[in-house]
Known about the structure:
It is built from 20 helices and 42 strands. Residues 1-5, 22-27, 127-131, 144-152, 278-282, 455-513 and 608-617 have low confidence and may be disordered.
Amino acid sequence: MSVDRFRFVSPGIFINEIDQSQIPRDTVRRTGPAIIGRTEHGPGLVPTTVRTFNEFVELFGNPIPGGKSGDVWREGNYSAPTYAAYAAQAYLRNNSPVTVVRLLGDQSPQAGSSNTAKAGWFIKGNANNAPAGTYGLWICNSASAADINSAHVTGTLAAVWYLTGSATIALAGTSVDGTTMEANSTVINNSTAGGSKELKVVIRDGGTNVITSTFNFDDTSARYIRKVFNTNPQLLNSNVTNTANQESYFLGESYGRNVRDLNLGSSDFYGIILGLGSGSSYTGGDHRFSYKLPETPPIISQDTNIAATTFDLNNTPYELFKLVARNEAEWLQNNLKVSITDIKQSPNPEYNPYGTFTVQIRKISDSDSNPQIVEQFNNLNLNPNSPNFIARRIGDKYVAWDTTHLKWNVRGEYDNLSRYARVSMLFNGSPASEDLLPFGFKGLPKNDGFNYLSGNVGASTISLGGNGSATGIAWAEGSGSIMSSSAESQGTPGYFPWIDAGTFGASIGPVAPMTMSLQFPMLPLRLSSSDNGVFRAKDAYWGLTTQKSRTSDVFDGTIRDIVRCRPEGSSRITPSLAYEERGPGFTLDNLVEDKAVGGKAAVYSGSNIGYSSADPGGGRADGASMTAVSASYQEVLDQGYNRFTVPFFGGFDGFDIQEKEPFNNTRALGGEGNAAPNEVDNAMFYTCKKAIDGIADPDQLEINLATIPGITVRGVTNHLLRVCEDRADALAVIDLEGGFTSSAEDTASFGDRAGSSAQTVSYIKARALNNSYGAAYYPWVQVSDTISGVRVWVPPSVAAIGTYASSAARSELWFAPAGFNRGGLSQGSAGIPVVGVVDKLTSDQRDDLYEVNINPIASFPAEGIVIFGQKTLQATPSALDRINVRRLMIFLKKQISRIAATILFDPNVQVTWDRFTGQVQPLLRSVKSRFGLSEYRVILDSSTTTPELIDRNILYAKVLLKPTRAIEFIALDFVISRTGASFDD
């Protein structure tokens, strides 16, 4: 502050503090590696930069050591290590940043019809898919009529089994007419099938193996359905499961909450198993398509029609917006949900008609009495001109893959501030009415229910109810018909659209008449403000509930099966097929004052949900809800009921759930020696190539290294080498064929999977690589996972990436990342503890590897494990056949290019030339002083930039460099002399 800035009025001492001690900002921008591979969760296929390991864990999850089995269907695949996560951890331990590209299953837009051309998974039986396939267990409540043979009961889909080969499944017990049998499509009375609230299933694998299991839906019981049956699809895969442990089936979905909501008695409830899917199709078990991003169903407004007798929440209110995952897939819907809270009408409608609300993203397993909020956005509104407009505050940008230019294009208007989701507005411009508020959500897509008629009706026992049926369940294609085996050809297969009588045959036996109305599972909703033990009625979150029952506060995994992506042939987001509908959604317009407790609580009275015993009419359409009685949407908000919860649904990872490692080299990527898999016919190769293409443009992404750890197929690693060479500013660290094979790829013993240096040398010779922008290492190393405490075999690229980070941090990036000083893996150079190697190399083996430009990872008795080489994959002898020189050149080209960019479009005159050289010279001088260069020279004058070039708007400079070479060979002569000899001679 200048002295004339002081205000001198009365005498005194005037003091000002001037801070000139600030540390200058680092002019060299940090760049790091691009690491491609699987992670626990996180943005899929879109390059995402993180700067700390904590940030990595928040976005992508902890590294997975593999080896876990259990309920893979529900809990996800933790069977194979996530090498990309270990590589990121190794690098971030000593340096930053890291750009991560998480792999999700994708397929070419021109994908062929072969199984390998499709992403995802499917379950297939024998050639006709019969009798194996997909089967559903339906459970029905007990009948009220005295004569069960003329009763009409209701039920829900309770569980789904997926069978392969010639496997069969049936319920065992006594049918409703008293016949003891083992059959499907026959109603079995549970009272004779294993006791209270239990049923018995028999599964035959087509051979001599028979599984007979009594089960229930009590997750505290030893007979809980998910404890009794196999829930790991990987056990169906003979490539990764030993014969003794293989299964011919697995249990997929189970809907415990829906079963419990039937309020079954201790006995006399009924079960029936029906085939799901038609004849030769894979329907139900067909998920062969690319990854999908989950989203919420449309969030809807309050009903603006005062005369609400025709109210239907799936059609009447306006659609406002929905939240869509930014780039996350199944993990998001399995672990997070959305709550809309603090919904308020405008306090001054004449001045500002828009109300406000809050969006919370919560953990799916929390409870309403103890919500666990991971993100919250307060005081939002639907006014597009407001700074608090929901799309502006949360963000609406997304990326779309450009298949022509092979790049990600950004779409949308507002930057994303949410880590997990973006907003998709469902109205253009302004909302239909300025006082609209989020009041609920539409139902999730599901299949229509149907009627099942048991009895002596020819060869078939299945009847599909039509619009005129007593139960009012619509099924347009099968209206009133009795299905036979020929029904397989009717209609287009979708999500359980046809009940396949043809797989059962005619020899079911006589069954007494019985009609059942069967529904597909629906989203569990809060029915009363007193549900789940909420202390205050107005603290209850309406809409979705994720607890085991209305009286429980414990999370129930049923929700994860309800929100799953629907199979091939069905409508994933919006019902559009004749056999599809929306399940019950939710709206605050259907809240009814619970008169039984004096108006201090509320109940939900939505369609297909049920009503309070105190008010069996209820509902907005019946004129009994708070908003209907008051003829104002404000009433329910004034009563304090101003929050609801909605799920994410429809996400899909695009992986084969029967593989431990979806990107295994052996099958998914075509196997060793596969130089060029066809991306049209190989979905996993297409995915890897797309991920690599996503980092190809240096103008869009700054990196100096790239790796796809664990993938050795030539077609993938060749493409990574080409991309790095084309960028000319990144070194590809690849893993090679012929080395170790992970246990996630096959069932061979450790010794048979170990590979050898000779095999690796043989394979790389056949490739004839000559690329200074690539490097490779051998063998695999064993690391100690610092989080889980287990030991994991990881590819050598993981240790190499970590060593590059520590070497640059300890010295300079142009120092060789090798040797005992900077490549000592036992001393922590890898960033994660390295405790072993697959192959302890001899001196001859190290020589063989180094001759073909593979850098050995050696193990010495005294010094430990060390990277003992620093060659690139360039075969032509030059300075660039060494990693330290290539890394130096990448650094200098990038830094000098940045300097050059500052003079673009400036006058092509001596002053500009001097400004350029004036910035380049100090940079090179600094690098020389730090032992990167032995000599340099910059030439920019009329001899380089001639008048002719000036006329063509070109500045031409020469930068001459002599890189400092690393010591790789030391020769010492030890001369033994006679006693009388002089050392001076």
